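Hi L.,

As promised, Lysophospholipase-like protein 1:
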Amino acid sequence: MAAVSGSVRLQRCVVSPAGRHSASLIFLHGSGDSGQGLRRWIKQVLNQDLTFQHIKIIYPTAPARPYTPMKGGISNVWFDRFKISNDCPEHLDSIDVMCQVLTDLINDEVKSGIKKNRILIGGFSMGGCMAMHVAYRNHQDVAGVFALSSFLNKTSAVYQALQKRDGALPELFQCHGTADELVLHSWGEETNSALQSLGVSTKFHSFPGLFHELSTGELEKLKAWILAKLPGEMERQKE
């Protein structure tokens, strides 16, 4: 798989800003989904597209690959896992390949004139985990990271990278349903505490009774956080 990085250009579903583009948001889907699928799901939950006056939203699609939790079946996943658990090693080879591919995506935004501190990256489930790897291991100068219904393995390479950090780190915004049966709420909490202890400032929102899914309340909170991290021209002038 290592040879992939140079040649993979991710399929992208893009929602352009209504006004002048001055910031970018990269939103990564969960396992087995697509960029288009995540956009549709959010639209269904909010009864409208997630859009901003000045922020371009990019929903990339993970390449199809064999996925061990599906007995090697082909799925659109950001990386492979030995199993869905926080208690096993990470499949670092596949994670590292995708960190490089997503770095290309970030670099495309920078080349188009968007500063790194005006780029947010995050995602749902596996997408949130992938975003934490990309930002905290390779791009500690992005505006922020968000992880919805996500977790990091107990021995994650992210924790190792942060032990060697220098300088400020992007803030983490996390949401998790207490009734999540696939990614346990406690795994999300443990991830949050571990990152906090390594110097990351975090926001953690629990949603009582929410399963492994998106909710209106969660997306409204996320939207407010996005605008706080990537204010438009008018808000920036007030600061």
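Helices lie at 35-46, 92-111, 126-138, 157-163, 185-197, 216-229, 233-238.

Thanks again for sending the construct details.

K.
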